[in-house]
Every structure is written in structure tokens, then in C-alpha cells.
Amino acid sequence: MGDRVLTINAGSSSIKFALFAPDERWPRLLAAGQIEGIGAKPSFHARVVGGDRLDVETKAANHEQSIGVILQWIEGAFAESQIGAIGHRIVHGGLAHAAPAIIDDAMLADLRLLNPLAPLHQPHNLAGVDAARAAFPHAPQVACFDTAFHRGHSFVNDAYALPRRYYDNGVRRFGFHGLSYEYIARRLRETEPVLACGRIIVAHLGNGASICAMRDGRSVATTMGFSALDGLAMGTRCGQIDPGLVIYLLTHEGLSIDELTHLLYEQSGLKGLSTLSQDMRELEASDSREAREAIAYFVNRIRMEIGALTATLGGLDGLIFTAGIGERSPLVRAGVIDRMAWLGLQIDDHANVTNAPRISRKGAMPILVLATNEEAMIADHTMAAAGMMATAK
Ligand code: ADP
Questions:
Q1: At 317, which CATH number?
Q2: CB-based contacts of 147: which residues, under 8 Å, 6+ apart?
Q3: Which of 204, 205, 328, 372 to mutate to test the pocket of ligand 1 (most atoms within 8 A of CB)?
Q4: Could you tell me the residue range of the domain that residue 83 belongs to?
Q5: What is the pTM assigned to this prediction?
Q6: pLDDT digits over 331-369, tens only?
């Protein structure tokens, strides 16, 4: 069996991939890339570590053909390489799948039943699995779930106050971004072992955004819930809204289910509020009132959730920013920390504008900026699940 692991993160119109080799602490990245615009005008980008970036148009018309294009490129770039296993990011594992595992027909059938719980992600994730199984019939395919890291929540952080039968039937606060939080928790254990044992809040602020409260490296509560719509406002998703508003939109405005889904997932959040863009860089560069208000809303919601999660944890020992905005937006981080001295959070302005790894003032509670790496987490899980390393870390 080869020792390379291919990770696949299949979305609605894109497939991101990365190729890793085993290494001491973390899998070593060899190459990465993606196919975008599947179903419209597909293009392929890839780079071997240390090499030039390749950008080409492709004729891949669906997920299966796209995996074929990726495979062809990998075989060309790594003639001697042997793919030992494929790791897939699967957004929803439901109640039953709380750890990475090798995919078989029964699991796939089970995961398809979860499509309605994550309609914009799960079917595409599984299309990626189907395509990879067809392309690599002999390599183990490993499912790595975004929900798994949160499956140990207590009842109060896992339930909605609906009639009890809903909870019993699996209507839970599943939470997402688990692979990112798990990566951060493990990195923290390596670099800041004392802090890692404490009460930590991690803000994953990307296109999708959520916050996770952790104690001793385990998830205690998180802002996303049954679906990936809840909690923070995001690039195009609404975040927390009053369920009464959903009833109003359906009954008074007469939205169809498809229109409502499109509104809440694709037209809301930063894009909806700003009327300009979902991209934080564009909003920061704009001096329109709507762009400023969209950022202010985004920041305010993060502050509120940090307060709530601190109460859940019974105090706070450190705050970590990660993902695109968390890692690279001094403006958002400064807005979040502004007037948070009551909690012990104080920002070092110079460290913040330079995206330094530690942006707290000397002597104040640690505020860290840590790059997430969901692909490395998937590769690590995949190597362990496929028996490609002596022991899981
Ligand atoms: P995804 O959830 O798609 O993986 P990312 O983690 O890549 O998203 O984050 C994307 C977000 O990060 C976008 O809103 C983008 O504008 C923002 N971002 C990236 N670089 C910067 C930057 N230098 N300053 C502010 N925002 C940034």
C-alpha cells in the first residue's frame, strides 16, 4: 500500500484537494489545489509545494470527472507516488458517526439519510466520495466529520426546548467546523500545553463562521446548531434569527421553501447587509455606510457569543482567532476585543496589525492568532483510520 494520502473537500461547485506524506507530528503537505466552477466554467488550480502555481481551464462537467482531472494531475506530478488512502471531509455524521471511519456501503447509505440536514453540503461531500471510490476502487476511503468534535456536549448544550421527542429523534445542536477546532485544540496542546488544559474560546471566522468553547481541549458548546445557519452572521448566511421571522417569511411574504433556503443560505449575512459583497476584504476597503454596518453587525455578534460562551465555561483563560478573517483581519479582531478588559482581554495594537501569533498585551489574558488546517487534520485522521501509522495521536 502506498503511503500518500489524498484529502478531498467537495462542495457544491468546487473540489479542494491536498496530497500528504506521513511525517513525525503532522502529515507533510506535498501538493494542493482545487477545481472551481463545476457545472459552469470549471477551472483547475494546483501547486506542488515549492513549485509554480498551475492554472488551467478544464472540461470536467461533474464531480466524477473533476476527481478524474485531479487524479490525472497527481499522477503526472508524482510519478512514483502511490495513494494509500483518501480522506473526505463530510459535514454531517449525525448521531451515529462521532469519529473518523473507513467508508463502506452501509455507512454511505446512512450518510445519505442525513442529506436533508445539510442540503448544501452533504450531497456534494458524498458525490466526492462516489467519484473517489470509482477512481480508487482499492484504496480505503475515510470519512472525517465536521460534527464529530462536538458530539460530547451536555444535554443543555445539545438540546432545543422543543417537545422532548424531537431531541430523542435526533434533533440536536450538532455544531460544525469540528475539524478546524480539533486541529486548533491539538496544536495548542503542542505549543501551549498549560493553556490547552484551560477554558478556551476559538473563533473560526471564515466565509462560514462559528465559535467554540473548549475545556481541556474538548468542545463544550458552539454557536452553530442543528444546521450551519445558526450563530454568527457569515459571508452569505444569516446566523441567529428569530424562528418567528421564518414563520413570517413563509406565511406573510409567501416565500417558497426553495426561496427561503436561498435567502438564508446565499443572500444574507455580510453580503445581504452590505448589499456589496460577502468578502471581508471588499467590505473593509469600502466606505459605504452599509459595508460599515455589516462589519459592525458581524463584530457585535461575535462579542455577544464570547460573553455567552464565557458564562457557559464559567470563566475564560484564552481566546484564539482562526480562519480567513480571524487570521488576517486586524480590524475585526480589534473590534471584538474593544471594551473587553472587564473579561481580561486587552489587545496589543502593534501585534494585532502585524497578525502576530500573540496579540494580547503583556500580562493580560492570552489572545492568539493560529492558522487552522482542516486538510492536515483530515490527512492525520485518514492515516490513523487506514492503519498507516503506528498509533493515532
Ligand atoms: P472558507 O470558509 O471559504 O474556508 P476562509 O477561511 O478562506 O473561508 O475565509 C474567507 C474570508 O476571509 C473572506 O471573507 C475573506 O475576505 C477573508 N479574508 C481573507 N484575507 C483577508 C484579509 N487580509 N483581511 C480581511 N479579511 C480577509
A1: 3.30.420.40
A2: 91, 92, 93, 94, 97, 98, 174, 175, 176, 178
A3: 328
A4: 4-145
A5: 0.94
A6: 999 999 999 999 999 999 999 999 999 999 999 999 999
